[in-house]
Amino acid sequence: MDTTRLLRLGELALPGLAVGLIAGAVAGGLAGIVGQPVGWALVSMLALGVPLAILGGGYGLLVAYRKVRIGAFAPVALFWLVGFPLARLTHEVLTYLVLAGEPRLPPDVLGFLAYQGIISAGFAIGFLWLHERIAPRWWQRMAPRNPVAADVYSAYAAYAKQVYEQREARRRSRGRATTQQR
Amino acid sequence: MVDSSKVPVSGAGQPGPDTGKAERVWRAGGLDPMPIRKLPDAPPAIHILGPTVFLVALGVGMGESYMWPRLVLVFGPEIRWLFLIGVTLQAVVMLEMARYAMATGESIFTGAARVFKPLMWFFFAVAILVYVWPGHLSAGAAAFEEITGIPWVLTACIALVLVGVVFTLAKVIYNLLENLLSVLIGVLVVGTAIVASLVGSWGDLSSTLTGMFAFGYFPSEAMSSTWFPIVVGAIAFAGPSGMQQMWYTLHLRDSGAGMGAHVPKIRGLRHAAEQEEMPARGFMFDTEDPEEMKKWKGWRRWVTFDALLLFWGITMLVTVSFTVLAQAAARENPNVASLIEGGDRDAALGAMSDAFASVGGSVLGGVFFGFIALIGLNATLGLFDSFSRGQADMTYFFVPGAKRFKISHIYAFFLWAVIIFGILILNFGPADGPSGVLDILAFLSTFAMGAYCVVLLLVNNKMLPKPIRPKWWANLIIGFGAVFYLGMLFYSLLRFGVVVS
Q1: pLDDT surpassing 60 at residue B26
Q2: Are B265 and B174 in contact (CB under 8 A)?
Q3: Which pTM was predicted?
Q4: What are phi and psi of A34, to 5 degrees?
Q5: Residue in B with minimal Cα distance to A159
Q6: Is B11-496 a CATH 1.25.40.10 domain?
Q7: Any B CB within 8 A of A109 CB
Q8: Does any CB of chain A come closer than 8 Å to the CB of residue B191?
């Protein structure tokens, strides 16, 4: 894969990557900051932030290549049902690795994964919510040089155009109604 | 009161000046008939963002983050079945509120006026009585004080002025608020999910979830004069409380949902000159046209998705997360339940902060207070806008002479009035701490909620054409809501003689 193609993929994945990273960094990272050396805090932050960012970026690619319906909840919920527990498991294992010098699984792995799976539904809603706010605008900016971004943005634009046309039609009908009332 | 139940979908009205033909109208109640217009197409895809963001912002408030976790600490997770009932009831109320607003482009207040004008004035008065108090703001500001040390009164006053300035400068208030709240709620939801995933455990979650289905559980201590009014208030605080559901009809209209598309949006004061004239009444679509009914079904699907996933789902998620945190807090500090029972109202928030801190230290405990502050900010933004929007709507359409002003001016008047009053109360009034004010609001809200269930039944069954009236089961649930809210309120009054805890 050449550099340009990688760059284009990165552009497509960036919004999801950013949402995942920020989510992991804000809450997960702060967990490690207090009373710990800066290096450890950074590791803790990255241990959760990076897996979430990679998965978030992956989801962005699925949307960009139109493998999942834009704005729909079911695919993102399924995606994070698997992804979120894995990210948290990675976080736990890496945390023990840094703290104790050797990797260790959480005590009740199945219970842990089940719990994280349920929490993932909430994370999925928040992720989709933020991604839908950020991604279309970013892809619009990338559209002139990235054909896939242009394609997915055009899907959003088609939707927006439809909404706009409806609004214009209503405005015209409202204008007529006002004239008639006079 | 005019019974419109036997009026045909469209009737003969005033002849149109251009066509010479009689304009088709829908006559409903004592106000002007609604002209028949085309129903716009429903959004092509079920899209995640809609006016429900306001309900979520308003609904996910102190009830979810404070009152219910508090009850769980005192009575155990089984008490949460009442929360499930409360939120599910609210989801159905939301769908029924949307029915009238999307079918007519009118607010539920105008609907109430169509049935019987004093009903609407009742809500006008209740809104002022309940919502001028800055209680919602003081809770968030107090949490902010925990993080920064800045006195909460100062933060609250600055926030009040900022909210006023932002809404005054906004070109179209709805767009600004939807964008702002969307980001804030997105951060809140993602952050809450992650913190709950760090702090909570499978045991906490399963007891919280199974507690939701412990139907009928009601410990004897909850039947005391101390706790019963608090439990009643907490049920009213499950999801959007008080008049928030009524204001949702105004947001639906401004978002252009259904026939709301035929009504202009409210603009900020700075852009009031661009405000289009508001039509004197709403519009109706031809319910005998199969094509129109098909579009109507599309709109109903859209709003049902909003109600179930966004409103019910997010409200449940946040409250389950906070309850899990509360249980973790009880483990950290076993005395917390007795502290709360003893009347230490800030113990719950402090103990939950401890639970965060137990995972990652004091900064994470601070993050918890950050979330409380964020929830307070969301609620403040939503409430101030909604209150002003509701009062402006009723004033503009029903106070004689008010149409001399633009609706933007009236909106700004109510906004700044409530801000100035809030600042005065915070500095000189009986601002006796955050949860004291919230308890009063919770109880007063209950009456308004019982009343709007009755109004909903009347409006949707009398003022809408038959094909789009609610099904019998929806009426049954809303009827149950009226009995539930009012019954609990009056039971509390008669049994304990307590109105406010």
Answers
A1: yes
A2: yes
A3: 0.77
A4: -70, 130
A5: B44
A6: no
A7: no
A8: yes
